[in-house]
Every structure is written in C-alpha cells, then in structure tokens.
C-alpha cells in the first residue's frame, strides 16, 4: 500500500480574515484560532504588499532587483497546480502536465491552492498601477511552469491518488518533464518519508542538465523526539544535490515546525508569509513550503543574471552569502544560514568572474541509488583555461523503499479576504 498522505493543509482550520481597503490591521472574523492573528500591521496602501515587507527586507530584495528580476528564467512548480488567471500571476504561467490525472472523478477541477500560493512567492508580479498591489514574488519577471504531481486533501481523488500504484513515481516523472521543457529551477514544496530509485535517477538527470533543484526540509520538527537530536529526513529534499530548505521565524531562528538534520542547506522565512490563492484570493501561512519557494526565487534571480552557471555554483552562491550564519558556519537547524538575494547575486558575480563554463557531468553510479551523498561531478573550465571538477554532496541523504507520505510542507493559518479595491483615477 502506498502512502502519500498530505500533511499540513490548513492545519485543520482555515481561518477567514478581513483586510479593509484602507487601514492598518488584519483581524480574523471567527474561529477558535482567532487569538493567533497578527497584531497591528504597518499602514501600507495595499495591506497584502505591506504584509510582505518583512520578507522583502530579510531577503534584501530591493537591492537584488536592481541586478536581476528573473527575466528569461523558467521555474517549474511541482505541486497541486497553479491558477494561471490570478491577477498577480496572469501572463507568467504555463500550465503543464497533470500527472495526477485519473485520481479525481471526471469533471472535478483541481483546487490548486498550494501550488498557486508557492508560484506567487516565486514569480508573482502584483497588479494595478506599476504592479504595486497584491503579491510580489522574489523573481517577478520569471516564468512559471505548473506541473501537477500532488492532490490536496480536500479533493475527492485524494485517497485514490495515495493508494493507487500507478501514481507511485509522479514526482520522478514530473522532474523529467520539467527538465525536458526547459526549466532552469525546479521548486518542490512537497515531502514524503521514503525515496525511490526512479526519483533519485530523475534528480541526477536534472542536475546533469544544469537544473537547480530546491525542496522543503519538512514540517516534523515539533514532533521529533528530543533524544534523537534531529527531525526525520524528507524527500526529495534529502536527495544529494537538492537544496534542502528549512524555515525561520520572525527572529530568523529555526521555526519550531521546521525539520533539522544534516540535509538542511539553507533557510528562509517561513512564518506569517503572505501569498496568493486561486480566484484572486490571498492567504497567510507558515511552513517550509513557503521558505522553499522563496529560495527558488533567489535561485531564479541568479540563473537570470548568470544563465550558464551550474547548479553547484548556484548553491555555492546561496550558501556563501547567507546571513545569520550559525556559530561555526553550519548547523542542522538553518544550514549555512538565511538566504539573502542581494548578497547571493554578488557572490554569484564573484564566482562568474572566475568561471567561464560549468556544465553537468556524468550521473552517479546506478549501483548506489541511495545514500553516500554524491550527486555526480560537474566539470568546470575556469577563465584562465584550467579545469576543475566539482562534486556536489549532501550529507545524511539515505533511505530506500516504497513511496510514503507525500505531503505539502506548509501550514495554512488563515485566508485573507480583501474588500474591493478603489477604482484608479
């Protein structure tokens, strides 16, 4: 029996909230979690964009956008589907393959909440005059390729999807599909407990084609046994060569739910993150899903500025430039620290000055499909004509067996309902 149970949608309670067309506060209208609502927010003209300001500051996006906005880059969002008509994403989304087809009864439309949310954090361009309203993503000029590889737990085909053997390798198939259709970055805000050989091979294939892979570390941190010293590994994040992302709280410390283990590479904000939902809606939530989408956006900024930069060098730019680095430079909670887009672009520029070409090399020995941490060599030709080989590693990546517990890596706190916006003059 396959188990891909989706683990975090709405945390059992989606809390409706109202944001007035003008005014500084966000208040829940009802529900047992009303006391968890945010307090007074800054009085921005657009409260959605205002709610994004902590993330914009933490990632230093205004400085980064002077260098790159992601133009020309495609980010594949392997998720539950993206609403291409949301006003903050319109014109930026290509709807790709639905690998869950047949799980839902005929005529049932996908919800696409989680996927739209993640896509908006990566490539939302806002709306209205100058795009100043709504959600602005990290790479607002990037394109999104939506690849549906999971169902949300409210969908009627959820049980079928999680038990039918024909859906076992949808993630692997989705990765290969995205690579073959020109994705530069693949965002995987999804998680499961165990890995398959097909997924590992798909990861190797993507890296060999120069694609940057980013995935969520997992939301089991609160449930991890204190004696173990770490939270369980999550796949695809724990595969060698994948950028495993943890979530931080408002103080830029590991969020309590965020998994900690030696697969974690970097971290990003993951608490009270504003994003878009289907039908021009907006949501606020928490999770390593959101942190992952933010990191994918930074990777997109780098690939837009340096399109030939190989995955290991993109990862080097992310890690070497991270802020709030732990004592000693690394720990299992936040990896090498919190991603900073402006610093990452500067580091990528430094690396680019020393490297003319960098291309994916041969895949790992297929006789070692799991563990070991080796994702295959990358051949680099420096500007001085010398050659080097970089080996991309990820510590602690191990496991084998059937697919298990594929899930969203986020907790949705509340939906934000906005009053009609005033007409522009």
Automatic annotation (TrEMBL):
<keyword id="KW-0378">Hydrolase</keyword>
<keyword id="KW-0732">Signal</keyword>
<feature type="signal peptide">
    <location>
        <begin position="1"/>
        <end position="21"/>
    </location>
</feature>
<dbReference type="InterPro" id="IPR000209">
    <property type="entry name" value="Peptidase_S8/S53_dom"/>
</dbReference>
<feature type="transmembrane region" description="Helical">
    <location>
        <begin position="390"/>
        <end position="413"/>
    </location>
</feature>
<keyword id="KW-0720">Serine protease</keyword>
<feature type="active site" description="Charge relay system">
    <location>
        <position position="289"/>
    </location>
</feature>
<keyword id="KW-0472">Membrane</keyword>
<feature type="region of interest" description="Disordered">
    <location>
        <begin position="355"/>
        <end position="377"/>
    </location>
</feature>
<feature type="domain" description="Peptidase S8/S53">
    <location>
        <begin position="70"/>
        <end position="337"/>
    </location>
</feature>
<dbReference type="GO" id="GO:0006508">
    <property type="term" value="P:proteolysis"/>
</dbReference>
<protein>
    <submittedName>
        <fullName>Type VII secretion-associated serine protease mycosin</fullName>
    </submittedName>
</protein>
<dbReference type="Pfam" id="PF00082">
    <property type="entry name" value="Peptidase_S8"/>
</dbReference>
<dbReference type="InterPro" id="IPR023827">
    <property type="entry name" value="Peptidase_S8_Asp-AS"/>
</dbReference>
<feature type="active site" description="Charge relay system">
    <location>
        <position position="114"/>
    </location>
</feature>
<keyword id="KW-0812">Transmembrane</keyword>
<keyword id="KW-0645">Protease</keyword>
<feature type="active site" description="Charge relay system">
    <location>
        <position position="79"/>
    </location>
</feature>
<dbReference type="GO" id="GO:0004252">
    <property type="term" value="F:serine-type endopeptidase activity"/>
</dbReference>
<dbReference type="InterPro" id="IPR036852">
    <property type="entry name" value="Peptidase_S8/S53_dom_sf"/>
</dbReference>
<comment type="similarity">
    <text>Belongs to the peptidase S8 family.</text>
</comment>
<dbReference type="InterPro" id="IPR015500">
    <property type="entry name" value="Peptidase_S8_subtilisin-rel"/>
</dbReference>
<keyword id="KW-1133">Transmembrane helix</keyword>
<dbReference type="InterPro" id="IPR050131">
    <property type="entry name" value="Peptidase_S8_subtilisin-like"/>
</dbReference>
